User: Fold this.
Amino acid sequence: MYRAFYSLSRKPFTKEIETKHLFPSKSFTELMARLNYLKDSRGIGVVVGEPGAGKTSVLRNFALSLNPSLYKVIYFPLSTGTVMDFYRGLCYGLGEEPTFRKVDLFKQIQEGVTSLFYEKKITPVFILDEMQLSNNKFLNDLSILFNFTMDSDNPFILVLAGLPYLLDRLALSHNQSLNQRIIMRYKVTPLDKEEVKNYILHHLELAGAKFEIFSPQAVEAIATRSRGWPRLINNLATNCLLYGCQKRLECIDEEAVIKSAQEAGL
Ligand SMILES: Nc1ncnc2c1ncn2[C@@H]1O[C@H](COP(=O)(O)OP(=O)(O)OP(=O)(O)O)[C@@H](O)[C@H]1O
Ligand SMILES: [Mg+2]
Assistant:
């Protein structure tokens, strides 16, 4: 209903945003550059950030930027199953029918990676998201699973993504075999105030906005309350639009941001 009130041709601030329309913030651009470095060097990289910082969005963008005749992306969020489901998922991702026992699965995955890289000249790119849900046993398994030709070559790219405490977990002494092999680490930073302003404008333009919907003070209030985290900006801005429409506010001001944030418990 707020769409009609604010003359928008589609809903802004949604998570269905197309990858090509993602806002190129400084952190987004920097992380893309780091991921491209990892692409060229191959090996293991880690991406961490607060909830809603934009990790999965950048990874999605990176995955789509890869030439499918040279790279095979296998994306796996750890929230969707058990560790064994994950190994089976890797097998399926590599185009193999998974075997039953873990030792056989490991061999199968390693052979799948080797054959893809050395014979078919395709680099497998494993993106393991929500890694904060993994346990130490699994982290240890990864260092064994991704050890090829006695660690002399990396026929793969592995990106581990998760909340910031993933880095602390990796720093623990029993995770050193994996930790020492990480060649790229990046912590996503929040948008600064100027970026929040441009981020909001960007979303509104994509939604076909024809006039200024948020006052500069409202934008400032959203920047302060969201601390620059994209998901929080989206939630706050959407609640402001709902509130503004309900109160028939043509322009959303600072007070409307505060009231709608309170109502939504943000
Ligand atoms: N650069 C961007 N441009 C436009 N929207 C973005 C951008 N980055 C993040 N978003 C939006 O913010 C929301 C959160 O982003 P995302 O899911 O990537 O965060 P995350 O860091 O993976 O969070 P979590 O830790 O909860 O998995 C998404 O709805 C996404 O569309
Ligand atoms: Mg995510």
Observations:
- Residues 15, 17, 22-23, 25, 28, 49, 51-57, 230-231, 234 surround adenosine-5'-triphosphate (ligand 1) (CB under 6 Å).
- The domain at 26-187 is CATH 3.40.50.300 (Rossmann fold).
